[in-house]
Amino acid sequence: MPGTEGSRDVSAQQTIHVAGEWLSAASGATREIIDPADAKPFAVIAEGGTDDADAAIAAARRAFDEGPWPGTPVAERAALLRRVADLLVRDREKIGLLESRDAGKTVEEGRVDVDCVADAFRYFADLVIGEGAGRVVDAGSDDIHSVVVHEPIGVCTMITPWNYPLLQASWKIAPALAAGNTFVIKPSEITPLTTVALIELLVEAGLPEGVANIVTGPGHTVGARLADHPGVDLVSFTGGLVSGTKVAQAAALGVKKVALELGGKNPNVVFADACATDEGFDTAVDQALNAAFIHSGQVCSAGGRLIVEESVRERFVAELVRRAERIRLGRGTEDGVECGPLVSEEQREKTEGYVASALAEGAVLRCGGKRPEPTDARPATGYFYEPTVLDQCHRGMRVVREEVFGPVLTVETFRTEDEAVALANDTEYGLAGAVWTADSGRGRRMARRLRHGTVWINDFHPYLPQAEWGGFGKSGVGRELGPAGLAEYREAKHIYQNLAPQPVRWFAG
Protein backbone atom coordinates (compact mmCIF):
# COMPACT_ATOMS: atom_id res chain seq x y z
CA MET A 1 0.00 0.00 0.00
CA PRO A 2 1.59 3.32 -1.02
CA GLY A 3 2.54 5.48 1.92
CA THR A 4 1.83 2.80 4.55
CA GLU A 5 3.60 -0.22 5.94
CA GLY A 6 1.62 -2.26 3.42
CA SER A 7 0.16 -5.74 3.64
CA ARG A 8 0.80 -6.98 0.10
CA ASP A 9 4.05 -7.61 -1.65
CA VAL A 10 3.58 -5.57 -4.82
CA SER A 11 5.12 -2.49 -6.31
CA ALA A 12 3.68 0.89 -5.38
CA GLN A 13 2.29 1.28 -8.91
CA GLN A 14 -0.17 -1.63 -8.55
CA THR A 15 -3.18 0.32 -7.31
CA ILE A 16 -5.71 -1.05 -9.82
CA HIS A 17 -7.72 -3.98 -8.47
CA VAL A 18 -9.65 -6.07 -11.00
CA ALA A 19 -11.12 -9.55 -10.54
CA GLY A 20 -9.12 -10.16 -7.39
CA GLU A 21 -5.73 -9.04 -8.78
CA TRP A 22 -3.66 -5.95 -8.02
CA LEU A 23 -2.38 -4.55 -11.31
CA SER A 24 -0.42 -1.76 -12.92
CA ALA A 25 -2.13 0.33 -15.58
CA ALA A 26 -2.50 -1.41 -18.94
CA SER A 27 -0.55 1.46 -20.48
CA GLY A 28 2.14 1.35 -17.80
CA ALA A 29 1.43 4.99 -16.91
CA THR A 30 1.90 6.21 -13.34
CA ARG A 31 1.14 9.34 -11.32
CA GLU A 32 2.95 10.87 -8.36
CA ILE A 33 0.84 11.72 -5.32
CA ILE A 34 1.75 15.08 -3.81
CA ASP A 35 1.75 15.98 -0.13
CA PRO A 36 -0.02 19.38 -0.14
CA ALA A 37 1.90 20.48 2.97
CA ASP A 38 5.21 20.72 1.08
CA ALA A 39 4.29 20.00 -2.57
CA LYS A 40 6.59 16.97 -2.62
CA PRO A 41 5.64 13.54 -4.00
CA PHE A 42 5.36 10.76 -1.43
CA ALA A 43 3.69 7.92 -3.36
CA VAL A 44 3.23 6.60 -6.89
CA ILE A 45 0.02 5.09 -8.25
CA ALA A 46 -1.10 3.48 -11.49
CA GLU A 47 -2.60 5.96 -13.95
CA GLY A 48 -5.40 3.85 -15.38
CA GLY A 49 -7.30 4.50 -18.59
CA THR A 50 -10.33 3.31 -20.50
CA ASP A 51 -8.89 -0.19 -21.03
CA ASP A 52 -8.52 -0.61 -17.29
CA ALA A 53 -12.05 0.70 -16.73
CA ASP A 54 -13.46 -1.72 -19.29
CA ALA A 55 -11.66 -4.65 -17.64
CA ALA A 56 -12.93 -3.66 -14.20
CA ILE A 57 -16.53 -3.31 -15.39
CA ALA A 58 -16.32 -6.69 -17.12
CA ALA A 59 -15.08 -8.26 -13.89
CA ALA A 60 -17.87 -6.65 -11.88
CA ARG A 61 -20.40 -7.82 -14.49
CA ARG A 62 -19.21 -11.42 -14.28
CA ALA A 63 -19.20 -11.31 -10.50
CA PHE A 64 -22.79 -10.07 -10.46
CA ASP A 65 -24.18 -12.30 -13.21
CA GLU A 66 -22.29 -15.48 -12.33
CA GLY A 67 -20.77 -15.04 -8.88
CA PRO A 68 -22.10 -15.81 -5.42
CA TRP A 69 -22.34 -12.33 -3.89
CA PRO A 70 -25.84 -11.22 -5.06
CA GLY A 71 -27.28 -14.45 -3.70
CA THR A 72 -25.28 -14.49 -0.49
CA PRO A 73 -27.60 -14.58 2.53
CA VAL A 74 -28.16 -11.19 4.13
CA ALA A 75 -26.64 -12.37 7.42
CA GLU A 76 -23.37 -13.26 5.66
CA ARG A 77 -23.23 -9.94 3.84
CA ALA A 78 -23.83 -8.10 7.12
CA ALA A 79 -21.14 -10.14 8.85
CA LEU A 80 -18.60 -9.16 6.19
CA LEU A 81 -19.46 -5.48 6.60
CA ARG A 82 -18.87 -5.79 10.33
CA ARG A 83 -15.50 -7.45 9.72
CA VAL A 84 -14.52 -4.48 7.56
CA ALA A 85 -15.52 -2.11 10.37
CA ASP A 86 -13.34 -4.07 12.80
CA LEU A 87 -10.39 -3.91 10.38
CA LEU A 88 -10.83 -0.15 10.10
CA VAL A 89 -10.63 0.13 13.88
CA ARG A 90 -7.47 -1.99 13.83
CA ASP A 91 -5.82 0.22 11.19
CA ARG A 92 -7.20 3.54 12.48
CA GLU A 93 -3.84 5.21 13.08
CA LYS A 94 -2.28 4.07 9.82
CA ILE A 95 -5.22 5.04 7.63
CA GLY A 96 -5.81 8.30 9.52
CA LEU A 97 -2.21 9.32 8.90
CA LEU A 98 -2.50 8.40 5.23
CA GLU A 99 -5.65 10.48 4.86
CA SER A 100 -3.84 13.41 6.48
CA ARG A 101 -0.87 13.24 4.12
CA ASP A 102 -2.99 12.65 1.05
CA ALA A 103 -5.70 15.28 1.58
CA GLY A 104 -3.82 17.76 3.79
CA LYS A 105 -6.18 17.57 6.76
CA THR A 106 -5.02 17.14 10.35
CA VAL A 107 -4.29 13.62 11.62
CA GLU A 108 -7.12 13.95 14.12
CA GLU A 109 -9.54 14.72 11.27
CA GLY A 110 -8.19 11.64 9.50
CA ARG A 111 -8.82 9.50 12.58
CA VAL A 112 -12.37 10.84 12.88
CA ASP A 113 -12.97 9.99 9.23
CA VAL A 114 -11.92 6.39 9.88
CA ASP A 115 -14.30 6.20 12.85
CA CYS A 116 -17.16 7.53 10.72
CA VAL A 117 -16.43 5.01 7.97
CA ALA A 118 -16.52 2.14 10.48
CA ASP A 119 -19.86 3.48 11.76
CA ALA A 120 -21.26 3.52 8.20
CA PHE A 121 -20.33 -0.11 7.59
CA ARG A 122 -21.89 -1.15 10.90
CA TYR A 123 -25.05 0.86 10.21
CA PHE A 124 -25.73 -0.74 6.84
CA ALA A 125 -24.96 -4.18 8.27
CA ASP A 126 -27.57 -3.60 10.98
CA LEU A 127 -30.05 -2.12 8.51
CA VAL A 128 -30.13 -5.08 6.12
CA ILE A 129 -30.07 -7.70 8.87
CA GLY A 130 -33.08 -6.06 10.50
CA GLU A 131 -35.27 -6.15 7.39
CA GLY A 132 -38.03 -8.65 6.77
CA ALA A 133 -38.59 -10.86 3.75
CA GLY A 134 -40.49 -8.20 1.84
CA ARG A 135 -43.59 -6.02 2.06
CA VAL A 136 -46.80 -8.00 1.84
CA VAL A 137 -49.43 -6.32 -0.33
CA ASP A 138 -53.09 -7.05 0.36
CA ALA A 139 -54.60 -8.11 -2.98
CA GLY A 140 -58.09 -8.55 -1.53
CA SER A 141 -58.14 -12.35 -1.84
CA ASP A 142 -56.81 -15.23 0.23
CA ASP A 143 -55.89 -16.93 -3.03
CA ILE A 144 -53.35 -14.23 -3.93
CA HIS A 145 -49.94 -13.92 -2.32
CA SER A 146 -48.47 -10.53 -3.24
CA VAL A 147 -45.16 -9.21 -1.96
CA VAL A 148 -42.72 -6.43 -2.88
CA VAL A 149 -39.07 -7.41 -2.50
CA HIS A 150 -35.86 -5.47 -3.07
CA GLU A 151 -33.02 -6.82 -5.15
CA PRO A 152 -29.54 -5.51 -5.98
CA ILE A 153 -29.46 -3.22 -8.97
CA GLY A 154 -26.35 -4.82 -10.52
CA VAL A 155 -23.01 -3.27 -11.45
CA CYS A 156 -22.45 0.09 -9.77
CA THR A 157 -19.75 2.57 -10.70
CA MET A 158 -18.65 5.14 -8.16
CA ILE A 159 -16.72 8.38 -8.65
CA THR A 160 -15.57 10.12 -5.48
CA PRO A 161 -14.06 13.55 -4.66
CA TRP A 162 -10.69 14.61 -3.27
CA ASN A 163 -11.79 16.29 -0.04
CA TYR A 164 -13.13 13.27 1.89
CA PRO A 165 -11.92 10.33 -0.19
CA LEU A 166 -12.33 7.61 2.43
CA LEU A 167 -15.61 8.85 3.85
CA GLN A 168 -17.28 9.38 0.47
CA ALA A 169 -16.13 5.96 -0.73
CA SER A 170 -17.72 4.30 2.30
CA TRP A 171 -21.05 6.07 1.81
CA LYS A 172 -21.28 4.32 -1.56
CA ILE A 173 -19.50 1.01 -0.97
CA ALA A 174 -21.22 0.01 2.27
CA PRO A 175 -24.83 0.24 1.02
CA ALA A 176 -23.90 -1.18 -2.38
CA LEU A 177 -22.41 -4.29 -0.78
CA ALA A 178 -25.19 -4.57 1.79
CA ALA A 179 -27.68 -4.69 -1.08
CA GLY A 180 -25.69 -7.38 -2.93
CA ASN A 181 -24.20 -5.35 -5.77
CA THR A 182 -20.77 -5.43 -7.39
CA PHE A 183 -18.87 -2.22 -8.11
CA VAL A 184 -16.01 -0.32 -9.70
CA ILE A 185 -14.78 2.78 -7.89
CA LYS A 186 -12.64 5.61 -9.17
CA PRO A 187 -11.27 7.85 -6.42
CA SER A 188 -9.95 11.30 -7.18
CA GLU A 189 -6.63 11.04 -8.95
CA ILE A 190 -5.04 13.39 -6.41
CA THR A 191 -6.25 11.69 -3.19
CA PRO A 192 -6.71 7.97 -3.98
CA LEU A 193 -4.62 6.25 -1.31
CA THR A 194 -7.13 5.58 1.46
CA THR A 195 -9.65 4.22 -1.05
CA VAL A 196 -6.99 1.74 -2.18
CA ALA A 197 -6.48 0.87 1.50
CA LEU A 198 -10.23 0.32 1.93
CA ILE A 199 -10.32 -2.11 -1.02
CA GLU A 200 -7.45 -3.99 0.64
CA LEU A 201 -9.55 -4.37 3.77
CA LEU A 202 -12.52 -5.64 1.76
CA VAL A 203 -10.27 -8.29 0.25
CA GLU A 204 -8.91 -9.19 3.68
CA ALA A 205 -12.46 -9.47 5.02
CA GLY A 206 -13.20 -12.19 2.44
CA LEU A 207 -15.19 -10.42 -0.29
CA PRO A 208 -15.40 -12.68 -3.37
CA GLU A 209 -13.24 -11.85 -6.40
CA GLY A 210 -14.67 -9.32 -8.81
CA VAL A 211 -17.15 -7.81 -6.37
CA ALA A 212 -14.92 -4.84 -5.46
CA ASN A 213 -12.82 -3.26 -8.20
CA ILE A 214 -10.87 0.00 -8.25
CA VAL A 215 -9.29 1.92 -11.11
CA THR A 216 -7.04 4.82 -10.18
CA GLY A 217 -6.92 7.39 -12.95
CA PRO A 218 -8.28 10.72 -14.22
CA GLY A 219 -11.91 11.72 -14.50
CA HIS A 220 -11.88 12.63 -18.18
CA THR A 221 -10.95 9.07 -19.17
CA VAL A 222 -11.71 6.58 -16.40
CA GLY A 223 -14.58 8.56 -14.89
CA ALA A 224 -16.17 9.20 -18.27
CA ARG A 225 -16.01 5.50 -19.13
CA LEU A 226 -17.57 4.49 -15.82
CA ALA A 227 -20.48 6.81 -16.62
CA ASP A 228 -21.18 5.78 -20.21
CA HIS A 229 -20.29 2.06 -20.27
CA PRO A 230 -23.30 -0.04 -21.38
CA GLY A 231 -22.49 -2.75 -18.82
CA VAL A 232 -23.16 -0.43 -15.87
CA ASP A 233 -26.53 -0.28 -14.08
CA LEU A 234 -25.98 2.67 -11.72
CA VAL A 235 -23.55 5.60 -11.54
CA SER A 236 -22.95 7.31 -8.20
CA PHE A 237 -20.98 10.56 -8.33
CA THR A 238 -19.89 13.05 -5.68
CA GLY A 239 -18.10 16.17 -6.86
CA GLY A 240 -18.58 19.48 -8.63
CA LEU A 241 -21.63 20.67 -10.53
CA VAL A 242 -19.95 20.85 -13.95
CA SER A 243 -18.52 17.32 -13.77
CA GLY A 244 -21.72 15.96 -12.24
CA THR A 245 -23.77 17.36 -15.12
CA LYS A 246 -21.50 15.55 -17.60
CA VAL A 247 -21.87 12.30 -15.66
CA ALA A 248 -25.67 12.64 -15.67
CA GLN A 249 -25.72 13.31 -19.41
CA ALA A 250 -23.54 10.27 -20.13
CA ALA A 251 -25.60 8.03 -17.87
CA ALA A 252 -28.85 9.25 -19.42
CA LEU A 253 -27.87 7.90 -22.83
CA GLY A 254 -27.99 4.40 -21.37
CA VAL A 255 -30.98 5.16 -19.11
CA LYS A 256 -28.87 4.22 -16.08
CA LYS A 257 -29.84 5.05 -12.55
CA VAL A 258 -27.78 7.98 -11.33
CA ALA A 259 -27.07 9.42 -7.88
CA LEU A 260 -25.40 12.83 -7.66
CA GLU A 261 -24.10 14.86 -4.72
CA LEU A 262 -22.86 18.13 -6.16
CA GLY A 263 -21.96 20.33 -3.22
CA GLY A 264 -23.58 23.40 -1.74
CA LYS A 265 -23.41 27.06 -0.80
CA ASN A 266 -24.50 26.72 2.77
CA PRO A 267 -25.95 29.47 4.98
CA ASN A 268 -25.23 29.80 8.68
CA VAL A 269 -27.96 32.08 10.06
CA VAL A 270 -27.30 33.70 13.45
CA PHE A 271 -30.12 35.51 15.28
CA ALA A 272 -29.29 38.09 17.93
CA ASP A 273 -31.05 36.10 20.68
CA ALA A 274 -28.49 33.30 20.22
CA CYS A 275 -25.85 35.78 21.40
CA ALA A 276 -27.76 37.22 24.35
CA THR A 277 -25.57 35.44 26.90
CA ASP A 278 -21.80 35.19 27.03
CA GLU A 279 -22.04 31.42 26.67
CA GLY A 280 -24.39 31.65 23.71
CA PHE A 281 -22.21 34.24 21.99
CA ASP A 282 -19.05 32.19 22.53
CA THR A 283 -20.70 29.03 21.17
CA ALA A 284 -22.14 30.71 18.08
CA VAL A 285 -18.78 32.29 17.19
CA ASP A 286 -16.90 29.05 17.82
CA GLN A 287 -19.32 27.11 15.62
CA ALA A 288 -19.13 29.73 12.87
CA LEU A 289 -15.36 29.13 12.76
CA ASN A 290 -15.95 25.37 12.68
CA ALA A 291 -18.55 25.74 9.93
CA ALA A 292 -16.30 27.75 7.64
CA PHE A 293 -12.73 26.66 8.29
CA ILE A 294 -12.55 22.99 9.21
CA HIS A 295 -10.41 21.18 6.58
CA SER A 296 -9.60 24.65 5.21
CA GLY A 297 -13.18 25.06 4.04
CA GLN A 298 -12.86 22.13 1.64
CA VAL A 299 -16.18 20.64 2.72
CA CYS A 300 -19.33 20.35 0.60
CA SER A 301 -21.43 21.41 3.61
CA ALA A 302 -19.09 24.20 4.75
CA GLY A 303 -20.93 27.14 6.28
CA GLY A 304 -19.21 29.67 4.08
CA ARG A 305 -22.14 32.13 4.16
CA LEU A 306 -22.53 33.78 7.56
CA ILE A 307 -25.90 35.55 7.67
CA VAL A 308 -26.03 37.43 10.96
CA GLU A 309 -28.68 39.70 12.45
CA GLU A 310 -27.68 43.32 11.97
CA SER A 311 -27.90 44.32 15.64
CA VAL A 312 -25.07 41.93 16.64
CA ARG A 313 -23.14 41.94 13.39
CA GLU A 314 -20.20 44.13 14.34
CA ARG A 315 -19.57 42.49 17.72
CA PHE A 316 -19.95 39.01 16.22
CA VAL A 317 -17.68 39.60 13.23
CA ALA A 318 -15.04 41.35 15.31
CA GLU A 319 -14.72 38.36 17.65
CA LEU A 320 -14.85 35.94 14.72
CA VAL A 321 -11.97 37.77 13.06
CA ARG A 322 -9.95 37.84 16.28
CA ARG A 323 -10.19 34.07 16.59
CA ALA A 324 -9.73 33.36 12.87
CA GLU A 325 -6.40 35.21 12.94
CA ARG A 326 -5.20 32.79 15.64
CA ILE A 327 -5.98 29.55 13.80
CA ARG A 328 -2.77 27.53 13.68
CA LEU A 329 -1.96 26.57 10.10
CA GLY A 330 0.54 23.86 9.29
CA ARG A 331 1.28 20.33 8.24
CA GLY A 332 -1.53 18.11 9.45
CA THR A 333 0.85 15.66 11.06
CA GLU A 334 2.36 18.31 13.37
CA ASP A 335 1.17 18.62 16.98
CA GLY A 336 -0.96 21.68 17.67
CA VAL A 337 -1.92 22.32 14.05
CA GLU A 338 -5.61 23.17 13.67
CA CYS A 339 -5.90 23.61 9.92
CA GLY A 340 -3.89 22.16 7.04
CA PRO A 341 -3.18 23.31 3.48
CA LEU A 342 -5.45 23.35 0.48
CA VAL A 343 -5.24 20.17 -1.55
CA SER A 344 -3.40 21.62 -4.55
CA GLU A 345 -1.93 24.75 -6.07
CA GLU A 346 -4.89 24.83 -8.46
CA GLN A 347 -7.30 24.96 -5.53
CA ARG A 348 -5.34 27.72 -3.82
CA GLU A 349 -5.27 29.81 -7.00
CA LYS A 350 -9.01 29.28 -7.39
CA THR A 351 -9.52 30.53 -3.82
CA GLU A 352 -7.34 33.57 -4.46
CA GLY A 353 -9.42 34.33 -7.54
CA TYR A 354 -12.64 34.34 -5.54
CA VAL A 355 -11.19 36.67 -2.92
CA ALA A 356 -9.89 39.05 -5.59
CA SER A 357 -13.27 39.17 -7.33
CA ALA A 358 -15.04 39.81 -4.01
CA LEU A 359 -12.80 42.75 -3.21
CA ALA A 360 -13.34 44.13 -6.70
CA GLU A 361 -17.10 43.86 -6.14
CA GLY A 362 -16.98 45.80 -2.87
CA ALA A 363 -16.39 43.28 -0.10
CA VAL A 364 -14.33 44.42 2.90
CA LEU A 365 -11.41 42.17 3.89
CA ARG A 366 -11.43 41.71 7.67
CA CYS A 367 -8.66 39.11 7.90
CA GLY A 368 -6.66 36.67 5.80
CA GLY A 369 -6.79 37.04 2.05
CA LYS A 370 -3.20 35.93 1.48
CA ARG A 371 -0.65 33.15 1.74
CA PRO A 372 0.87 32.90 5.23
CA GLU A 373 4.49 33.37 6.10
CA PRO A 374 6.37 30.04 6.06
CA THR A 375 7.46 28.26 9.24
CA ASP A 376 8.96 24.88 10.06
CA ALA A 377 5.46 23.41 10.29
CA ARG A 378 4.32 25.39 7.26
CA PRO A 379 6.81 25.03 4.38
CA ALA A 380 6.88 27.78 1.80
CA THR A 381 6.20 25.18 -0.89
CA GLY A 382 2.94 24.04 0.74
CA TYR A 383 -0.49 25.11 -0.50
CA PHE A 384 -1.47 27.15 2.56
CA TYR A 385 -3.95 30.03 2.61
CA GLU A 386 -5.00 32.09 5.59
CA PRO A 387 -8.56 31.84 6.95
CA THR A 388 -10.32 34.76 5.31
CA VAL A 389 -13.34 36.81 6.41
CA LEU A 390 -15.05 39.05 3.84
CA ASP A 391 -17.51 41.56 5.32
CA GLN A 392 -20.31 43.60 3.71
CA CYS A 393 -21.05 40.97 1.09
CA HIS A 394 -24.20 40.66 -0.99
CA ARG A 395 -25.89 38.07 -3.16
CA GLY A 396 -24.62 39.59 -6.40
CA MET A 397 -21.00 38.60 -5.64
CA ARG A 398 -19.49 35.46 -7.19
CA VAL A 399 -17.98 34.52 -3.84
CA VAL A 400 -21.48 34.43 -2.32
CA ARG A 401 -23.11 32.56 -5.20
CA GLU A 402 -20.50 29.93 -6.05
CA GLU A 403 -18.87 27.15 -4.05
CA VAL A 404 -15.33 28.29 -3.14
CA PHE A 405 -13.98 25.15 -1.45
CA GLY A 406 -11.42 27.17 0.45
CA PRO A 407 -11.11 28.93 3.84
CA VAL A 408 -13.29 31.91 2.91
CA LEU A 409 -16.23 33.18 4.97
CA THR A 410 -18.59 35.84 3.61
CA VAL A 411 -20.76 37.99 5.89
CA GLU A 412 -24.29 39.17 5.07
CA THR A 413 -26.82 40.76 7.42
CA PHE A 414 -30.60 40.70 7.97
CA ARG A 415 -33.18 42.45 10.15
CA THR A 416 -36.24 40.17 10.08
CA GLU A 417 -36.92 36.45 10.08
CA ASP A 418 -38.44 36.64 6.61
CA GLU A 419 -35.34 38.39 5.30
CA ALA A 420 -33.13 35.71 6.86
CA VAL A 421 -35.13 32.98 5.11
CA ALA A 422 -34.99 34.80 1.80
CA LEU A 423 -31.22 35.20 2.00
CA ALA A 424 -30.60 31.63 3.11
CA ASN A 425 -32.75 30.21 0.30
CA ASP A 426 -31.34 32.54 -2.35
CA THR A 427 -29.01 29.94 -3.84
CA GLU A 428 -29.04 27.44 -6.69
CA TYR A 429 -27.83 24.84 -4.21
CA GLY A 430 -29.60 23.35 -1.21
CA LEU A 431 -27.34 20.93 0.61
CA ALA A 432 -27.22 22.14 4.21
CA GLY A 433 -27.73 25.13 6.46
CA ALA A 434 -27.92 26.11 10.12
CA VAL A 435 -29.95 28.39 12.36
CA TRP A 436 -28.76 29.81 15.69
CA THR A 437 -31.48 31.05 18.01
CA ALA A 438 -32.55 30.83 21.64
CA ASP A 439 -36.19 30.62 20.49
CA SER A 440 -36.97 26.93 19.86
CA GLY A 441 -40.17 27.82 18.00
CA ARG A 442 -38.25 30.09 15.65
CA GLY A 443 -35.66 27.38 15.12
CA ARG A 444 -38.31 24.87 14.04
CA ARG A 445 -40.04 27.46 11.84
CA MET A 446 -36.79 28.28 10.11
CA ALA A 447 -35.95 24.59 9.63
CA ARG A 448 -39.30 24.04 7.90
CA ARG A 449 -38.83 27.03 5.62
CA LEU A 450 -35.23 26.45 4.56
CA ARG A 451 -34.85 24.58 1.26
CA HIS A 452 -31.84 22.51 2.24
CA GLY A 453 -31.41 18.75 2.65
CA THR A 454 -29.98 19.07 6.17
CA VAL A 455 -30.83 21.86 8.60
CA TRP A 456 -29.02 22.16 11.92
CA ILE A 457 -30.52 24.14 14.78
CA ASN A 458 -27.82 25.44 17.16
CA ASP A 459 -25.14 23.19 15.68
CA PHE A 460 -23.14 22.76 12.49
CA HIS A 461 -21.65 19.81 10.59
CA PRO A 462 -22.75 16.66 12.49
CA TYR A 463 -24.37 13.91 10.48
CA LEU A 464 -25.73 10.49 11.36
CA PRO A 465 -25.31 7.38 9.20
CA GLN A 466 -28.95 6.53 9.89
CA ALA A 467 -30.17 9.90 8.53
CA GLU A 468 -30.30 10.71 4.82
CA TRP A 469 -27.75 13.08 3.32
CA GLY A 470 -28.29 15.01 0.11
CA GLY A 471 -29.61 18.28 -1.20
CA PHE A 472 -32.26 20.26 -3.01
CA GLY A 473 -31.78 22.07 -6.32
CA LYS A 474 -28.37 21.81 -7.93
CA SER A 475 -26.93 20.06 -4.88
CA GLY A 476 -27.83 16.81 -6.56
CA VAL A 477 -30.18 13.90 -7.11
CA GLY A 478 -30.89 11.11 -4.62
CA ARG A 479 -29.69 10.54 -1.08
CA GLU A 480 -26.82 8.82 0.68
CA LEU A 481 -26.95 7.24 4.15
CA GLY A 482 -30.12 6.22 5.94
CA PRO A 483 -32.70 3.82 4.48
CA ALA A 484 -32.87 5.93 1.31
CA GLY A 485 -29.12 5.49 0.88
CA LEU A 486 -29.63 1.72 0.77
CA ALA A 487 -32.62 2.09 -1.56
CA GLU A 488 -30.40 3.86 -4.13
CA TYR A 489 -28.65 0.52 -4.71
CA ARG A 490 -31.79 -1.59 -5.06
CA GLU A 491 -34.61 -2.32 -7.46
CA ALA A 492 -38.12 -2.97 -6.18
CA LYS A 493 -39.82 -6.08 -7.56
CA HIS A 494 -43.47 -7.02 -7.16
CA ILE A 495 -44.09 -10.78 -6.99
CA TYR A 496 -47.76 -11.73 -7.47
CA GLN A 497 -48.67 -15.39 -6.95
CA ASN A 498 -52.11 -16.79 -7.69
CA LEU A 499 -52.61 -19.83 -5.44
CA ALA A 500 -55.83 -20.92 -7.18
CA PRO A 501 -55.58 -20.03 -10.86
CA GLN A 502 -58.78 -20.15 -12.96
CA PRO A 503 -59.53 -19.42 -16.64
CA VAL A 504 -60.18 -15.77 -17.31
CA ARG A 505 -62.64 -16.35 -20.20
CA TRP A 506 -61.86 -12.94 -21.66
CA PHE A 507 -62.01 -14.37 -25.16
CA ALA A 508 -64.84 -16.51 -26.41
CA GLY A 509 -62.50 -19.20 -27.81
From TrEMBL:
Q: In which pathway does it act?
A: Amine and polyamine biosynthesis; betaine biosynthesis via choline pathway; betaine from betaine aldehyde: step 1/1
Which GO terms label this protein's molecular function in UniProt? Answer: oxidoreductase activity, acting on the aldehyde or oxo group of donors, NAD or NADP as acceptor
Which Gene3D superfamilies does the UniProt entry name for this protein?
A: Aldehyde Dehydrogenase, Chain A, domain 1, Aldehyde Dehydrogenase, Chain A, domain 2
Return any one Pfam family short name: Aldedh
The Aldehyde dehydrogenase domain sits at 22-495
Catalytic site residues? E261
Taxonomically, the superkingdom here is Bacteria
InterPro entries reported in the protein's UniProt record: Ald_DH/histidinol_DH, Ald_DH_C, Ald_DH_CS_CYS, Ald_DH_CS_GLU, Ald_DH_N, Aldehyde_DH_dom
Listed A to Z, the keywords are: NAD, Oxidoreductase
Q: Tell me which family the UniProt entry assigns to this protein.
A: Belongs to the aldehyde dehydrogenase family.
UniProt cross-references to PANTHER family, sorted A to Z: BETAINE ALDEHYDE DEHYDROGENASE (PTHR43860), BETAINE ALDEHYDE DEHYDROGENASE-RELATED (PTHR43860:SF2)
Official protein name in the record: Aldehyde dehydrogenase family protein
Species annotation: Streptomyces typhae
